[in-house]
Amino acid sequence: MFYEIEKGNSNLKVNPFKSCNVPRAISWISTKSVDGKDNLAPYSQFQNLSFDPPYVMVAINQTPEGKRKDTTINIEETGEFVYNMVSTDLGEKMNITANGVPYGTDEFELANLEKAPSTLVKPMRVAASPVQMECVYVQTIRLPGNGAGTVDILIGKVVGIHIKDEFITVDGKIDIPKIRPLARLGYLDYTTVDTSFTMDLYDGRSAYAQGMSGTPETPFK
User: Fold this and answer.
1) What contacts 109, CB < 8 A, 6 or more positions away?
2) Domains in the chain, start-ordered, CATH in brackets?
3) Which of 7, 17, 42, 210 is close enough to 218 for a disulfide, judged by CB 3.0 to 4.6 Å?
4) Among candidates 141, 149, 111, 140, which has minimal Cα distance to 128?
5) How confident is the model at residue 218 (pLDDT cuts 50, 70, 90)?
6) Confidence of residue 171 (pLDDT cuts 50, 70, 90)
7) Cross-strand pairs, 134
């Protein structure tokens, strides 16, 4: 079966594109407007870009009316944002913050979420989130699309990471299966990350292997 994007000429009822790159981490992005109003919204088009220094990107589509999302506006105007990891137990609250609401609405309050102050940036963190990354804005790449398909790709540099102590293993790693992060599968489908396994693909002594695995011995600095 071949699905031609522009024609949609197949027996599929829904475009399969978003289910061809899965699972996708949900980035629960918190920002603060220039007048100090808190904002929180989830996006599943999110990814690491590099690790030395660590850069991340979040792709945010515009609205069907051609307006840019509140998150995009706030990041560009203030230069800061926070990534909050969504654990499975926070899924319902995350879903509430995905609702389209008037600009200036505080989604923390809408979903009854406790706020936690950040250390290096102004946006608040989701206190219940197991992992949060404080980020400073670097640049925006805007890709034209059809209607809501127009997207702003915002790149940020991670300047600090918060991890709840109960999710750190005795050997100093993040216990991902214990966190049970929520991830998107396309459509309205989700999955939970609750298992992991290790594969040794590179010489563990090499700088490249250490950088890939995130080990503290990485000699890049």
Assistant:
1) none
2) 17-213 (2.30.110.10)
3) 210
4) 111
5) very low
6) very high
7) 82, 160
Give the pLDDT confidence of 32-68 residue by residue, as tens digits. Answer: 999 999 999 999 999 999 999 999 999 999 988 889 9
Report yes or no: 130 and 176 within 8 Å, Cβ to Cβ.
Answer: no
Decide if pLDDT at 221 tops 70. Answer: no
Cis peptide before 117 (omega within 30 of 0): no
Paired tokens of 193? 């990350």
Both structure tokens of 191: 């999955």
Q: Is the pLDDT assigned to residue 215 strictly greater than 60?
A: no
| Cβ 179 vs Cβ 189: under 8 Å | no
The pLDDT of residue 14 is above 60: yes
Nearest to 80 by CA among 27, 42, 123: 123
For residue 1, with 0-12 CB atoms within 10 Å meaning exposed, 13-18 middle and 19 or more buried, which class applies? exposed
- 26/22 Cα distance (integer angstroms): 11
